[in-house]
Amino acid sequence: MGGLRLALSLFTVAPVRASSLDRPAVRHAMLLAPLAGALLGLVLGLAGRGLVLAGATPLLGAAVLVALSLLLTRGLHVDGLADTADGLGSYATSDKALEIMKKSDIGPFGVAAIAAVLLIDAAAAASLLARPFWSSVATAAAAFAAGRLGATVACRRGLPAARPEGMGALVASTVPLAWLAAVTLVTAGAASLASPWRGPLAVVVAVAVSWGLTTHARRRLGGLTGDVIGAAVELSTAGALIVLAVG
Fold first, then answer.
1. What is the DSSP letter of 22?
2. What is d(CA 97, CA 246) in angstroms, rounded to the nearest whole number?
3. Backbone angle region of 100, left / alpha / beta, with phi > 0 → left and psi within -120 to 50 → alpha
4. Which domain holds residue 228?
């Protein structure tokens, strides 16, 4: 339960307080990140589909869903996405790129990344909300569970931290690969309840996106940062939403 509380506090604005913030607690939180994502997606799906039932268009329901996702996560992950885009897009040395990522302002790469991802999320969510009630809600839960699995992937064993301090240093290499595989299989199995084959495929795509991004971050930055985790969550969610929205 301590790990779940920490996962909810890290990935949502749920009013829960973690009992500890050390590497064992973080490991449990990252392993439970997909569950936190599924709960978030469930709330978002209910809100978006509820608006559609009340007479709103699926596009308006999707816009509200995306806006609520930012509100219920404090915009933390899109901030990481923007910083990561600015750092990686600079083509500077690793030290200079990390310095860029620490700045509070957002550059053109960050603005473009946020705009593109939110547009994709809204367009995909509109497709989901046009479906029957429980299908809409279940696919939203599956998409956000797959997106938070991106954080679990980012914290896999063998991927070092880019800095000796910060969130990246706390969570880097906390998830053993065997546990990552187990959580991925469980998440894929749960996602199959939303869509028998698109659900598991969405999970596979989310894992591939996060793995690719974090591998690139290791090559360019030297390892993992908290911003890279946020970017992995946002990009993995977008990838999962695309898969679930098509067809």
1. S
2. 36
3. alpha
4. 2-245
Beta carbons within 8 Å of 83's beta carbon, 6+ residues apart: 100, 101, 102, 103, 106, 110, 227, 230, 231
Spatial contact of 193 and 138, defined as CB atoms under 8 Å apart:
yes
Domain count, the chain: 1
State pLDDT tens for residues 187-231. 999 999 999 999 999 999 999 999 999 999 999 999 999 999 999
CA–CA separation, 162 vs 93, rounded Å? 13
Structure tokens that stand for 148 in this block: 């938070």
Give the pTM: 0.95
Lookup: tokens for 177: 């690969």
Report the alpha-carbon distance of residue 16 to residue 176 in Å, rounded.
26
Distances (CA, A) of 83 to 33, 144, 165: 22, 21, 17
Specify the length of the chain in residues.
247
Tokens of 171: 């969570």
In three-state secondary structure terms, 156 is strand
Q: Which pLDDT tens digit goes with each residue over 10-49?
A: 888 887 776 677 788 889 999 999 999 999 999 999 999 9
- For tokens 């009013």, what's the residue? 15
